[in-house]
Amino acid sequence: MRTIRKKREEYQNHEPGASADGLWKILWKLEIPPKVKVFWWRVVHEFLPARHILWKRHIEPIAFCAVCGAPEESIAHVLLYCTVAREFWHQVRVGIGVKIPSLNTASWASDLISGICSRQDTTVILCGMWTLWMMRNKRRHGELSMSIQQAVTWARDTAYDLWQISHPVQLQVPDKASPRWMAPSQGWFKINSDAAFYENKHSGATASVIRDHRGSFHAAQARWYERGFDVCLMEALACRDGLLLAKQQGIHQVWLETDCLELINLWKNNDVQRSIVDPVSSSARAAGAGARSPPESATGSGACPPASCSARAEGAGT
Length: 318
Ligand SMILES: [Zn+2]
Description:
Layout: H1 4-12, H2 22-29, H3 34-44, H4 51-56, H5 75-81, H6 83-96, H7 108-111, H8 119-140, H9 148-166, E1 189-198, E2 203-212, E3 217-225, H10 231-248, E4 254-258, H11 261-268, H12 270-273, H13 278-286
Parallel strand pairs: 1-4
Antiparallel strand pairs: 1-2, 2-3
The protein binds zinc ion.
The site of zinc ion has 7 residues, from loops.
């Protein structure tokens, strides 16, 4: 990582007019719009028509600031010390949390891009200063300028957008190995059941959604349980509730899908099945299914052939 000193040296070594000089290299890497890069280039080289600069060149008869009456309207005055600038940076500090650091009056423009602020803060500060200069120009030309609050918002949003573009959030790419929600065969319905269990209160909730073979929503419900034993039992209750919901809806051909691997493993174990998974098997029987389901299955309706009665551990695609 470059040190501030190295960046300063890189800047100081640049030769005006050379396209690949240190200043431009630093500017180029900043996460600011191109127009702001060009603007900052002009700030560093004092290529902006501030009144005091024009006055020194005998172009402007007066040097004072038309806003606050300060004797010299320098670039630094417009961007840092004028009453408008002070109010602007106050609002930036309060609203965005970005503070202008202590600056050397001689080298402040180059210091600001030499790493004395974080990259994010530098983006906000330079965008803010560009905005202040645009506001100054509009005032000078008698045009309506945006309010300070609008300017702060623009600087904030621009900096934020640029930061997001430069540092995109890594979206989670679905694992190809984990299948998405798969519709049941035509004429069948799928129940997706899930549960929540709050260990500290020993309470929980269940939720079930029923969709048809096209994936179209058919029915859903959620139930709250004041008492619960553990998460696996709650998952079993969720499956039972899903099956009861299907029964209420007059649905008899169902696939039941849960994301609880432990429950599926218990279901496969006939001995344990009678204990913790009993609510599910009882409901399955009540719905007309056989008391036992084949391996790879959790439960199903009476009309459901074994191969179609699936409870897949990977079926959390809802
Ligand atoms: Zn002023």
